[in-house]
Structure formats: structure tokens, C-alpha cells
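Forwarding the complex inputs:
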Amino acid sequence: MKLELSERKKQILKAIVDDYIQTAEPVGSKAVTLRLNTNISSATVRNEMAELERLGYLEQPHTSAGRVPSSLGYRLYVDELMNRYTLTRHEIEDAVQSISLRMGELDRLITEAGRMVSELTNQPAIAVSPVSEGEAVRRFEVIRVDESTVVLVLVTTSDLIKNRICRLNFPLSDLEVTAANRALNAHFTNIPIEELTDVRIAQAENESGMEISEILVAAIDFASEVLHLLMRRDIYLSGASRILNYPEFHEPGKAMALLECIADHNTIDFLPLPDERHPVRIRIGTENRIAPLRDASIIMTSYKTAKGATGLLGVVGPTRMDYAKVSARLKRFADELSDLLNS
Amino acid sequence: MKLELSERKKQILKAIVDDYIQTAEPVGSKAVTLRLNTNISSATVRNEMAELERLGYLEQPHTSAGRVPSSLGYRLYVDELMNRYTLTRHEIEDAVQSISLRMGELDRLITEAGRMVSELTNQPAIAVSPVSEGEAVRRFEVIRVDESTVVLVLVTTSDLIKNRICRLNFPLSDLEVTAANRALNAHFTNIPIEELTDVRIAQAENESGMEISEILVAAIDFASEVLHLLMRRDIYLSGASRILNYPEFHEPGKAMALLECIADHNTIDFLPLPDERHPVRIRIGTENRIAPLRDASIIMTSYKTAKGATGLLGVVGPTRMDYAKVSARLKRFADELSDLLNS
DNA sequence: CTTTAGCACTCAGAGGATCAGAGTGCTAAA
DNA sequence: TTTAGCACTCTGATCCTCTGAGTGCTAAAG
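Prediction (whole assembly, four chains):
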């Protein structure tokens, strides 16, 4: 059904997208002939452009304005036409350098990575914390800070560390803390979240004595909450205000709508998720189901932590985005991050 | 030198500010007479307004436009004139309710509080983590997660919990971990940051054996880094995009400039810091030293944690801000937060 | 059949010109 | 001291015009 476009049409489309990305103004036939410095005349280009519009790759804001790429046009562009952007030597290095200082704090690193991607691409960035399948608690620790307050620390299988202060209704001895520690690590480590049941708790209580049951229950509650939270995969948005760099979002409500829409969604369902076959996923304009994202594009990619968990990094920007540059930088940053985390 | 304004002038000024806050349009003499429903004529008001302008409380965008309050005008307004805003029953409660769920995680709570203030006031919010004077480490904990990696956890005197993963160059036995734990807690707790010196480290090594020195050094380094970081008092900005609600920031560069300016400053020096005598500090327009803040106002207040540390919460907004409502809500939220943290 | 030159046509946006209305300051009377 | 009245100022809205970029179509050229 769908005919392959002629090579010339593709070149013209490419020229239009390239030009539009640069100028943010509708592109006319003249501009195209200049950009393609082949000896083709503007009239010919006009004919081709009319054709491209009929096929849905271009749109015309009004008669006698130039053409603007449609989502379909961008799609063809990113899939087939765009130049590979070659990174200059130090473009990413500095960022990765500085993030390596953060290595010890995986949680912090997530948001920090977002910040850097935002800076690197000059667009708002999206970061999603790394999670592996079947996340579990690897290690519990109960730390007594004073008479009747303890800190619960748990380390998950993907090296995320979470903690919480618990104030108890009664004082606790060092011995009891040790007992709680032992019980927790004996019975509740490396168990997937679904299996943290009451049965197990009862069993642990039997073995370790009832006194510590309050801590146990608190710890298990906490653990299951944390694990659930991890499963939910919070979305962090960094550098939101950079969206204002782009004239297409200068209209009052527009930027707000976009940003709120991303901040409010607390599932990752609306993001284009990368997989093995598509390490960088791009969702363009109207390809987004959610209304306020209709004139924005999202690029997402992933990185892996030492434990094999997969984190997501991406950017949001105007549909007219420098896909080549942005996706190259994003991908490279994510790759460097993976390397760093796995070395 | 500075003459006290007549009561009538004050009422007129108040009417102008009230009106301008609502409408964002320069206020004319007519509007003032309507607002003050006393039987004063617009001509009289005009005379008074001319006077107020001469005294620096009002400004005129151009002849034959109404007047707009100057920073000085707002200053008088917030110091003397504005109505106390009375909070309705449930305005704050819901927010506090939901934040109480977060109680266990002080770090998280900080940014969460910022989010809520932003929502409550519909303006960008500033949150600064609580710090008490002479912050120190109250408790260390070394958690072994596998052969040669440990997690260092430290609890500071103001209940902040920080952690970091350390990968060592050699395997570590449980015994050594216990020894490190003991040594850290014996020698390095409750010691103000400045005194975490090499001497102490050497001393601890002597007593505990050299094998664990690597952990000790890492822990101490980490501790001093964390304490320094705490001292630096990071500034968290939430709900940045809400600034776009205000037409005065619709001009392209303006919102960006403001937000960047706040995000970039990593000291709290530029914020109006509350103290005992001024629990809510307001800095208005040109009172801000920093250029991009010149047509914005900042309101800051503080809350106290259970450990007596002081956290900051505040908002940024247009100079034309509903000072009464915003500061009431902010203050109330901070107070509720204090109560919650201290109960 | 494809390309191109030429031309008439369209339309948005820039640049005036006009005008109403809001608001002022001043003067003179109350 | 207050106020009514009035002349004056200035912005912002509205309307018009006009330019120029860009188009589609036609007919000739390749």
C-alpha cells in the first residue's frame, strides 16, 4: 500500500526538517533549493512539496506560508533521514566526570543524572530510577539512635538504599536490636515482595521472641512499602524551565500544561520505553496519546546498573527538536553512565 | 525626617495595593474611591496619590495610567496595612495530613514540604533542609552487603540520615565490620565537623587495628563531606513552572532568568532569613540585591525539627503577590509542620 | 514525461493613522 | 480643604494599507 518515497522526496523532506529545526519558521521552496545545493529548481521542489503534503509528511500553516513537517514527517526523518550527530571529544566527558563523584549514592545519582542530561541537551529531562525484575531486600539493618528510636535501613538487590526513622512506644535494648537485626536478615532477605506475608512474620516472631515484633512489623511494612515504591518507578523531572527556551512554548498556558502533565503522571506508561531492538525510543508530537504532549516529543533511553537493574533517562522538548544531536548526547551519556556503574 | 503618613493616605495606599494585587492593572483614582466606600471624591484621591507618588510609595507607568505600588509602597503595606488573612478550616489540614505519612524520611520530607507549599500558594516554593548549629554525627553504621562492599550509614544529630555505598579493594569479614562499627561509634560520634582530624583517625586505628583503616578513612571522609554538605544547606525549588501563572512573567526571558537565578545560587545568603523577631520575612522587589529578583518578592519562614534544627520554607512570586494570603498559609503550614515533627 | 520559467493569486504580518476612553493635573468655586 | 469641571495626555484597540514571501497553475522547453 504505502509506496516508498523517491530519493529526491526524501532529500527534500530532510532539508525541510533540518531547516525547520534551525529556524522554527515554515520552510519555503526557495530555502530548500538553497539547502540542497543541487541544481534543482524551486518550481520542481514546489511540486514535490505539494506531493509530500498530500502524503501527510508536511503541513501548511496557511496558504502562502512555507511547509512544516508533520509528526509523520519527523518520524521518517528520525527513522531514516537524519545525519548521525558526531559528538565532539569533550561534550559528555565533563558531565560524566563530575557524576562519578556521586557514585556512592545511587538515589542521588538518579536525579543528578537527570540534571546533567537537561544541561547537556538544554531541555527538560526525565529520569526514572533503576529497577530490576523481582526486586527484593538484600540486607536489613536496624540502627538504634536513642532509647526508643531506631533507623531502619534496607539495601535492595539493585543497591538502592532506603531508610526511615521509627519512634517506638517503648525503650529497646542493644540486645533486642541485635535480635531484630538477625531475625530480619535471616527470614526476610532476598524474598520478592509478594511473598512478604504475615505467615513469615509470625514464624520469625516465634523463633526470635515476641518483644521485637513491633520492629519486625515496622520493618516489613517499610520494606514492602519501599519495594512497592520502587515498582512504581517515580519520575523525576529536571530543568523544567528550560522548556521556555523554545518559542513554541512561549504562549502562556502551554509550557505549564506540558510540565504539569509530566509531573502529575506517576506511571511511566506514557513514556516511549526503550528495549533491546530500540535502545533509543522517540515519540513524536501526535504520536503521544496524552493531549498536552501532542506538540512535544520525548526521547528515552536506558542505562544499566551493576546489579543489572535498568534505569531510564530521557528528554522532553518541542516537536521541532534537534533529534540527531539530542539523541546522540542522551545515548552517549547513558552509555557512559552504564560503563561507570559497571566498572 | 520621615513623616508618618496620614491615616487617609495609608487607606488609599492600601486600597491601591489591594486592587493591584487583584487586577494586575494600574489603579486609578476612581477605582480607589469605589474600593474605599467612604464619601471621598476622586479629585481628593488624585491629590493624595500625587503626594504618595512624590513620597515614593507609588509609581506611574506613564501619564494617564493609574498608579502602581513601588517596593516601598508594598513594604508599608506588608508591615502595617494589610488585612490579616484568616485561614479557612481545611486549607492547610489536608496538606499536613498527607505529609505526616512521610514523617519517617526527613530528607524526603523536605522536598515534599516544598511541593506542598508550592501547591498551597500556587507559586514556586523554596525549601532548605533543617540544620542545627554544631551538627555532628550521632551514629555510624557499617553494613556489609557482600564480600567487599559495604554501605555506610550515618545519622546526624538532627536526624538526617545519609548513606553511601563503598566498594573496597579487599574482602571484609563480619568481625572486621563489627570492629569498624565499634571504632566509629566510639571515637567519632557527637564530634563537630571541625574536629574530625587525622589525629583522631590515627588514634582509632591504634586501638582497633590497622586492617579496618580503609573503612575508617572512608567513613570519616564521608562524614565530613556529609556534614559540609549539610552546612551548605541546599536549596530545593519546587513547582517552578507555577511562576507562569503570573502574567508579569510571560515575557520570554523573564521567568527563566528568575528560576535559573534561584536554582544556581547555592548559598542561602540571598534569601530573607527569618529570626525570632521576624518569624516571617518578606523581601520585596528592588529590596533584592540580585538583578533578576528585582521584580519578584520572596517570603521565607522557618520550622523546627524535634532535634531543634531549623529548616526554611518559602515562596517566590511576583511583587504583586497576595502577601496576606500567601504568608498566612506559609506560616501556618510551617507551624503545623513543626508541631508534627515535635509531637 | 519531467523540469522549469513565468505569472497571477493569496495571505500574514508590519507599519501607519485614527479614535475612544481612562486617567491625570490644574483651576476655581464651595 | 475638598470637590467639580475641564483641558490635556497617552495607551491600546481597531482598521487599513501594503509589502513580500510563498504558493499553484500553465505553458514552454528539455
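The radius of gyration of chain B is 26 Å.
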